[in-house]
Design a protein that fits this description.
Blueprint (H helix, E strand, L loop, with lengths): L14 H17 L5 H31 L12 H33 L2 E3 L7 H15 L6 E3 L13 E8 L7 E7 L7 E4 L8 E5 H7 L10 E11 L13 H11 L5 E7 L4 H11 L6 E4 L8 H5 L26 H7 L2 E5 L5 H12 L3 E8 L7 H11 L3 E6 L7 H13 L3 E3 L6 E2 L2 E9 L2 E9 L11 E8 L2 H15 L11 E3 L3 H17 L5 E6 L5 H13 L2 E6 L16 E6 L4 E2 L2 E5 L6 E5 L5 H5 L1 E8 L2 H15 L5 E4 L5 E3 L10 H13 L24
Parallel strand pairs: 1-6, 8-9, 11-12, 12-13, 14-25, 17-22, 19-20, 20-21
Antiparallel strand pairs: 2-4, 3-4, 3-7, 5-6, 7-8, 10-17, 11-15, 15-16, 16-17, 18-25, 19-23, 21-26, 23-24, 24-25, 26-27
Helix pairs in contact: 1-2, 1-3, 2-3, 10-11, 14-15
Length: 713
């Protein structure tokens, strides 16, 4: 088959529909009875938050394309309008599934566990009296009823805010009704705990919006309330910034952020029992198409469930705590630089503690022999110890250079604040490159030693974020390899000045050569297969979207290369096509931790080359971001990473297999061991920390039975 034939739209799955399949796998975790109740609630909250972002960015972008008359098809052969139609059908089914899960399973189970949400009609007299006082003291002073008439236009409704739409009987006999709206205060708890009664046991709650509706007459005295229903609008949040014309990028982004809450309406969520007259007012005023209306049978906006799932005192309803283990290679080492200099150090988060990375930067900030620290930051935590260490380093006179990407979506505001703080401490701060997001994860420490200047480098697949490092699976490498050190210096010179991208010794970077490097590695395996030699590709990533790379995988598969992919989220590759992708299998793992590491393995005639990367196989990563691909050359670390891939590919509990249809199915466990790969790695890290096994023994371990684990570890 010619290379252009592999671009046939029938060979590709639509990106947006594939993402919705991923969110459905997250929803499956909320429905999985083997997960603890509070964890199931958390997964349901995540599906809601995910959908918010999907509508604000992906659906919004497609709507913009339709409005602009853009009709070009995507790699799967769908126009923007066709995509929106299929998205609408799919998301309506998903939302119904969310609320069926909540109402038929999770709420009843919460009730059995002593946590009950009461409707207004089930309140006893003492609870009603409590709510009367709570409303008067806490809620009423915050509320601002907004009426709409000839002198008061329809107000701007904040994106993602919860509101109550009200129809009032009009005093003018010629008019049937008038409209008003009240925003539910975001600064108050969504669920208000009620006092119990002598006859009842457990804890009782009521939703804030229900309290407000109980006492609406106090806001509209003298008016008859015809109906009142909660609603929520989601708006276009995709920022467009002309970086070439922006004199001050920070100021331009700050201005754009203010507009995010007022973009065009994309989705309307409203109480399923809404009065048709009220619905028509909202639909017309917010300019919402009927296909973008979601009738909700329950509390609107399930992201509040995240707080519910973190309630104190219910340990039996949560995963048993897992404490990340300090990496064995650095344990007890007072001289972290000496340990890294002796041997490359591999870390696998969150099984290995991120404290090793934080400690590396903190140690560098205090070490009098360290002359400079250079680092890229994409998403950092709200109280980042890494940022504090960088500030300390600059204040002590070290040269500190930080590329802090202020265009990181939904983290722009926080990153702007960090950028200003770092500048005040004396750091050299770069906000990013014009037209590109800097997404690579790299730290360079330059140290003066007896033998001369030595460069210590940390490269990773995930963000320098101490909070998400306990929730996301990522890999990192500490090294003093002189070639990688030289490349690291070149990276920062390229980012901070006008230096042209160099000829790399070991690293490869996007948007210049990373795509070409991956294509050449795939082609090498294809040639080996054509020569009759063993040829294997294993790759792990968050998303696989790029058509050129997928076509290369198809060509390699057709030549006989065995390709095993672990793709957590979007996957546009369609496996199992005769003569095209018969040799490709794709699994997705969704579990306790968010799979986030990017790993590339190529058999290469038995050499077994391994590369870690910050980049997914997506056009944006390869063409519009600064990304890095770096090799793993230490034989022990290579064996360990191969072992990680093999265990994940053997997962029978949290893995799902992608079928040719684009749907995912559970693993057929008949004749297979029960294995949750994430729990396996938790157990393994604990064994290593206790020195029960050596790091080098990792690949010799067979997949463990789940009964070898503490349940829910």
């Amino acid at each position: 088959m010619r290379s252009e034939d592999y671009r046939n739209p029938e060979f590709y799955i639509n990106r947006e529909l594939s993402w919705l399949e991923f969110n459905d796998r997250v929803l499956d975790e909320a429905r999985d009875k083997s997960n603890p109740l509070f964890e199931r609630i958390k997964f349901l909250a995540i599906t809601s938050s995910n959908l918010d972002e999907f509508f604000m960015i992906r659906a919004a972008s497609l709507k913009d394309q339709v409005k602009a008359g853009y009709t070009k098809i995507d790699i799967s052969g769908l126009t923007p309008k066709q995509q929106l139609k299929q998205i609408s059908v799919r998301t309506h089914v998903m939302v119904d599934k969310q609320y069926n899960t909540l109402n038929r399973s999770l709420f009843p189970l919460l009730g059995k566990s002593g946590i009950k949400v009461l409707p207004g009609e089930e309140l006893d007299d003492s609870q009603k009296a409590f709510l009367q006082d709570y409303f008067s003291d806490m809620v009423y002073p915050v509320l601002t009823p907004m009426a709409v008439d000839s002198r008061r236009p329809f107000p701007l409704i904040l994106s993602k805010s919860l509101n109550i739409g009200i129809l009032l009987k009009h005093s003018d006999g010629d008019k049937e009704y008038m409209f008003a709206t009240v925003q539910v205060p975001a600064g108050l708890p969504r669920m208000i705990e009620l006092p119990g009664s002598a006859e009842k046991n457990g804890r009782y709650f009521i939703f804030l919006e229900e309290i407000i509706m109980m006492f609406l007459d106090t806001l509209f005295t003298g008016r008859e309330i015809l109906c009142a229903h909660p609603y929520r609008i989601t708006r276009n949040a995709d920022l467009t910034i002309d970086e070439e014309e922006a004199e001050d990028l920070l100021l331009e982004i700050e201005k754009s952020l203010k507009k995010r809450n007022w973009g065009a309406g994309i989705r309307l969520e409203i109480d399923h029992a809404v009065d048709d007259r009220l619905l028509n007012v909202l639909k017309n005023a917010l300019d919402i198409h009927k296909g973008d209306i979601y009738y909700i049978k329950g509390p609107i906006d399930l992201t509040f469930l995240m707080k519910l799932s973190s309630m104190e005192g219910y340990r039996h309803l949560k995963y048993k705590p897992y404490e990340p283990q300090y990496p064995q290679a650095l344990k007890g080492e007072e001289d972290i630089f000496g340990a890294i200099d002796r041997k490359d150090v591999f870390v696998h988060h969150p099984y290995d503690s991120f404290d090793a990375v934080v400690g590396f930067i903190e140690k560098a900030s205090r070490d009098p022999d360290v002359l400079a620290i250079k680092q890229t930051l994409y998403r950092v935590s709200g109280n980042s110890p890494i940022v504090r260490a960088l500030e300390q380093a600059a204040e002590s006179g070290k040269q500190v250079m930080v590329l802090l990407e202020v265009k990181a979506r939904f983290d722009e505001e926080r990153n702007i604040q960090w950028a200003k703080r770092l500048e005040q401490a004396g750091c050299h701060v770069i906000y990013g490159l014009v037209g590109l997001k800097t997404h690579c994860k790299i730290t360079l420490v330059v140290r003066r030693e007896e033998s001369g200047i030595k460069r210590y480098v940390h490269l990773g697949t995930g963000n320098y974020n101490d909070i998400t490092a306990t929730l996301y699976t990522d890999m990192g490498l500490f090294t003093t390899n002189e070639y990688i050190g030289a490349d690291a210096s070149a990276v920062f010179n390229m980012l901070s000045g006008y230096s042209e991208p160099p000829q790399w010794y070991k690293l490869e970077a996007a948007p210049v050569g990373l795509r070409k490097k991956l294509l050449s590695l795939i082609e090498n395996e294809r040639q080996n297969a054509l020569a009759g030699n063993k040829a294997v590709i294993m790759a792990k990533m968050n998303s696989l979207v790029d058509r050129e790379l997928i076509a290369a995988l198809y060509s390699a598969s057709a030549a006989g290369v065995q390709i095993k992919l672990i793709v957590r989220g979007i996957c546009c590759l369609r496996p199992g096509i005769k003569g095209v992708s018969e040799n490709i299998t794709v699994i997705s793992i969704v579990g306790r931790f968010l799979e986030h590491s990017r790993v590339n393995y190529f058999y290469n005639d038995g050499r077994e080359d391994i590369y870690l990367s910050s980049a997914d196989w997506m056009p944006r990563n390869l063409d519009a971001r600064v990304e890095l691909l770096f090799p793993v050359e230490d034989s022990g670390i290579k064996d360990r990473i191969i072992g990680v891939l093999e265990v994940e590919l053997a997962d029978t509990l949290k893995a799902r297999v992608l079928e040719q249809s684009g749907k995912y199915r559970k693993i057929d466990r008949r004749g297979k061991k029960s294995l949750d790969s994430q729990m396996y790695f938790c157990k393994l890290a604990v064994k290593e920390a206790k020195a029960e096994i050596a790091e080098a023994d990792f690949p010799k371990f067979e997949a463990l039975h789940l009964e070898d684990f503490e349940p829910g570890v």
